[in-house]
Every structure is written in structure tokens, then in C-alpha cells.
Amino acid sequence: MPDTALHPDVRIGHVHLRVADLDRALAFYHGVLGFEITQRMGNSAAFLSAGGYHHHIGINTWESLGGQPPPPGSTGLYHLAILYPTRAELGNALQRLIHAKIQLDGAADHGVSEALYLRDPDNNGVELYWDRPRSDWPHEASGSIAMFTRPLDLHALLAAAKQANGE
User: Fold this and answer.
1) pLDDT tens-digit map of 81-101
2) Domain tally for the chain?
3) Domain with 135 in it
4) pLDDT (tens digit, 9 = 90+) per residue, 68-82?
5) Residue environment code for 24-62, b if the CB has 16+ CB neighbours within 10 A, otherwise e
6) Contact call for residues 20 and 66 (beta carbons, < 8 A)
């Protein structure tokens, strides 16, 4: 029988979202979150990335122009997650959200990570997070990971960003 374990370097590469209004979605993902537009296909699609990658996020109106989000209680995307390299960068993202007056749905310390939860203009769930170093992750006595959900101190997160930015 072949080994069914997934290679440890496998990663989820990108997300592609149906949106109702391309410009509105670009105002959020590019204007607020800061992803660069790597390609735009008229008024029907765009691709965005960080660091020059071909795309981390694709957005299109091919089947959704003027559409409505799925109703509560239906299946679909719970949220997409955007991983920031450091706590300070997550704090910078929080500053951008505050500046843009984007409401948070929640914020949590999960032991392994710290996360901000919000909605994009099409009501898709978005998680912005950073991972703590693996050596700092909480574990059960058995060795398994012991994630939890506790309140995240947003003031401390903003302070980490200010300190890293020399403010």
C-alpha cells in the first residue's frame, strides 16, 4: 500500500473568489489590505499578490456580477486566511483596518497564532494571522498541540507594530 501521508512542504497556494463588484473588492484587497495587483482583466477579474508572486488572491465577476452573498446556514467558504510573517506585521494590518474603519468580527489568541477576523465587501470571512514559532506552541502532556481560543490584546498588538516601526 502506498504511503498516504502528505509531503510536509505542501501548501495551499491561492484563493479565487467570486465577487459582485470588482472595483469594490479591489478597494478592499488592494486599497485596505495592501496586496499588489499583478494582473487585471478588464472589469471582470484581477489577480493580487504580496512580494511579486503571480497571485495569492484571484477575484472575478464571471458568475457573480451584482450577486448577493450566500444566505446564513448555507455551505461554502467559512473564511480565507492570510498569514503575516511577524506579530508586528499583523499589528500593521490592524492599523490599516482601523484607518479604513473596517469592523472586526473578532480577535483571538489561539496559542499557536494570533488572529483577526473580519468580512470582505462580499461578506466572505477573512482571517489575518501570524504564527508563533513552533517552539512556543502549547502542547498536551501527550505531545499533541493544545490550541485554545482566548481574547487577543489589540492594544499590545498595535504596540508591537509601533515598536517595530520605531514609533
Assistant:
1) 999 999 999 999 999 999 999
2) 2
3) 78-167
4) 999 999 999 999 999
5) ebbebbbebbebeebeeeeeebbbbbbeeeebbbbbbbe
6) yes
